[in-house]
Amino acid sequence: MLVKELLGHGFKPVTLPDGDRVIDGVYIGDLLSWVMGRAQMDNAWITIMNNVNVIAVASLADTSCVILAEGVELPEDIAKTAEEKEINVLTSSQPIYETAVLLAGLIS
Amino acid sequence: MSEPLIFHFDVDGDNFTSAGQASTQVKKNLRQLGLSPDIIRRVSIAMYEGEINMVIHANGGTADVIVTEQYIEIILADKGPGIPNVEQAMQEGFSTATDSIRSLGFGAGMGLPNMKRYTDTLEIDTMVGVGTTITMYVYL
Lengths: 108, 140
Prior knowledge:
- The complex is a heterodimer of chains A (108) and B (140).
- Chain A is built from four helices and five strands.
- Chain A is of the alpha/beta class.
- Chain A has a five-stranded mixed β-sheet with strand order 1-5-4-3-2, with helices on both faces.
- The longest helix of chain A has 12 residues, at 96-107.
- Chain A starts with 11 loop residues before the first strand and ends with a helix.
- Chain B has helices spanning 21-32, 37-57, 86-89, 99-102, 111-118; strands spanning 5-12, 60-67, 71-78, 121-127, 131-139.
- Chain A binds chain B through residues 30-34, 36-37, 41, 49, 51-54, 56-57, 59-62, 85, and chain B through 16-17, 19-20, 23-24, 27, 37-38, 40-41, 44-45, 48-49, 52, 104-106, 108-111, 113-114, 117.
């Protein structure tokens, strides 16, 4: 499944500079080093962290997109950074578990 | 590529906003050299963890990356407080980061373990009160 195909399924785009990236698996976590240690390349990464370091971690760990769950928003200046670094960021108003279940149904 | 390529960076202390600039730049440089995504990912994550450690614990430092045909060498040097017990610092989950650092999502005690995980060799040269130099190799 491609990142852009999540739109219209409960996920809203904040930045989508590389919507053709493939989602291969999902990782959930808020501790950044834990994510860097365990997330796989091309995973969709679900988190509630929304600081600028999330963008750096998504870039370096090469995840296909960041999904901010629980209705967490991305501050405007950080969205600009995400756009510059070509990081896809989407939001979900659902709690983390429901977001993960929804995603699992879509990518399976 | 016969001569090694050398990239040098100064890492600002106490600046989480700019932390990651060096590793992001290295990622770009390695991509331009045509290295595999897996190698690029390993080098960038190991280096980012080092950068973050220098920001959290050592008020910054320097990062040098040397790219040869056989390996990539990453040297992170700081004049911070040093690591009193390296064996303890290498354990997953051990952290001396403050609550404010943890609130940013850091301080999980995974920095050094991740640097070891993603590189082929990792050497730590540290002296309390003098500083720390970490040298990592990723073989190509």
